[in-house]
Amino acid sequence: MASPTSPTVSRALTNGDDDAIPGEDTSEVTKLFAERLAAWKHAVGYLEDYITATEKTHHAHGKEYERVLKTVKDPLKEGHHFDQSLGGIAGMFENIRSNTQGLSNQHYETAKQLKGSVLPVFERLHTEIKNKTKELTKGAGKGSKAVDKARSVTQKHIELLGSHTASFESHGGKMTATEDPYVLQRGVLHRLNKQIQEENNNRQDLISVQNSFAQFEAHVIQTIQGGMGQFMQVVNTQAEQTKMAYGDMVGTAQKIPLDFEWNGFVQRNNTILIDPSAPARSVSNISFPNQNHRSTKPLIAGSLERKGKLRSYSTNYYVVTPSKFLHEFKTDDDFAKDPVPETSLYLPDCVVGALSDRKFNVKGKDVSKGKVGNTFSMSHEFQFKAHTPQAASQWWELVRQAAGQVTTEVPEGSTPTSPIGKQNSEVEDGKHPLPLRTDTAGLARSDTTGTSTTGTAGPTPISAAPASGVGREPGQY
């Protein structure tokens, strides 16, 4: 860079000046330069304050980011629900912690660089300006004082010459040798010469100062530019690192596969979660205690018709249990509704009539309502009708074995028929009974049951249903 040239000074100190003692202020130029140096000193001081404030701000930012870091520093609550490997939510938070710690460290480092590298540039420049001010005061300032002193001495001799030239006119020229105006004038010229030498020397000093100020100000500006360049480099590095840190945080979050956490969660909890490919539970595949206890298996089960109050028959599902109950249900479906018996007859407390074709009667109390209902209920006569005579014989035989009393009373409008004879006639005619679910193994007879009121023995017990009827599902009749 070319050195700047000093502008032409339009004002000359002595040339063209006819006055022996000019009326100018010899320190005016020096004061002007001193004021300009003060302006530069204050400008550099502003920059020093700016860098210092910025350094303190970054240091404070470092502390603030430490506070920000505390918000994610503790382990995640319920953190076991997240995959701890990289690439997931836990890895994202680890990345946030790392980058936030990095941001804090970067601000501390920026503050350190501003204080250690940038600020000294302006501090040194400030010192140079102070030294320049001292140099101006000791150099040009001292020359101005010498000029003022020389002018004062010359002024005194000029006044002395004037006084004695006036005395010469009034006294007719009589005076001492030292008061001779001739001698005094030569003394004025002598001192005026010394004054002019001081003025010219001071002039040269001011010109040198003036020329050096152009170069010094160029140096000041170059130093400021260099310091601001270093400042920009430091803060730009900080800004880029901040941008990269936040970009890394966001990028890490965006790279998480949408099913990453879910797949890990399923894998970690595969013993708890439901397997979609596993078959649904079915009652048929479930077992429970006493599921196949002999008391749970019916002796016979199927559909019968029972005469109602309107003398019409309705079909329902009936069961004779090993507990010697004859239960009536609306259906054999265990799942549609709670299978609570509509009617329950405790057969040892009932009286069973004779079998007539497909019909037989049972007289007793409905105990399906429990003890209270049993206490207040009255005995009723229930008339049943099977779908076939063979089925009627099987039902009647099992009911008769469990009943407390057997009579020869036949259902209304029926003729008594021997079960054994009926079976034999059916066999002879080539007829076969419809299958029933029967099981007489669980039916225990007492010594006092199974006798009729007329003293005749009942039909021979049926030990088991025909092969075609064993194991049939309820609801066949």
TrEMBL record:
Residues 297-404 form the PH domain. Residues 1-24, 406-477 are annotated as: Disordered. Residues 448-469 have a biased composition (Low complexity). Residues 1-13, 406-424 have a biased composition (Polar residues). It comes from the Eukaryota. This is PH domain-containing protein. Keywords: Phosphoprotein. InterPro entries: AH/BAR_dom_sf, BAR_4, PH-like_dom_sf, PH_domain, SLM1/RGC1-like_PH, Slm1_PH. Gene3D superfamilies: Arfaptin homology (AH) domain/BAR domain, Pleckstrin-homology domain (PH domain)/Phosphotyrosine-binding domain (PTB).
